Amino acid sequence: MSGPLHKLVSWRVSWHRAAPVCPGSDGPAQWIEEGRDQVSASGTAAAGQVEHMLRQVTPGRYDAYEALLQALADGRIWMLLWHGRAGSPDAQYGNMEIGGLGYAPCVTSAQELSASGWTRSHEVVAGRDIARALFPDRWGIWLNPHAPGGGVGVPWLDLRRIATGLDRMPAGPLRLTEPAVELPQFYALLTQNAHHTPAIRSLHRAWVQPAFGTPYLAIGLDLYDTSPPSVEAVRAMMRQSIGAVPEGLPVSTVAMSDEYDPITMWLRANARPFYDRDAHAAPAAGGYGYPPARGAY
Question: Which of 5, 50, 140, 150 gives the lowest tally of CB atoms within 10 Å of its CB?
Fold first, then answer.
């Protein structure tokens, strides 16, 4: 990639001839210039893998969509520049809005670039690089919007997964609910240990069912500060508590300070803490850390 990644600018989009596909969304889902395209053989192969996996994606095929994300992480795409040229200070990507989410349009190969009829400049960018550049501002990418059917959208939550590692975050869309599994010993031990860990402000929980993968219990950690000693104290708290979890039940943690994590966003909007240091000095007797009934405070 040459130069910094660029800002986005809006324009009206009239490419969509049919309902576009955006299987990873959990919410409201280079044009050829002679001498400009310098793509290595390995880059061409990676682009071919992106196009191959793109053809497999249909609504509900989350396994194919996950494979597409992996191909994007290892490959490159052709970003469409609305203003300027690749590497120039005034270069800007275009953007489009689908279903309330923002996307930067792009194509998957020089051949698709030619087929699209785009006459402005473009920039060939590694998939991980564009993911790192766009997700913090909550922008996704839209692959081949000129294609029959309207192309495929990759929302910013999935760009975040590409940027940080697909194996480190669950595959969306996620189904998030209050945990139904009864774990009184674990919750009692966890709230007791949290009460003796000054860094902990509150604890939250959710049952997470990924679109692709094993369901698990997520514990949201709300800390007073994130200094190294505090983080290590919280890790020790979890190590001391995890032994009370039944064998085979996966448990993960999320930081309540992470403004980009979809589990954290759901917890803040939908779940009260089951331990809250500011609300009560100790866990309620006999409650095993469960929140009081609605209206109790």
Answer: 5
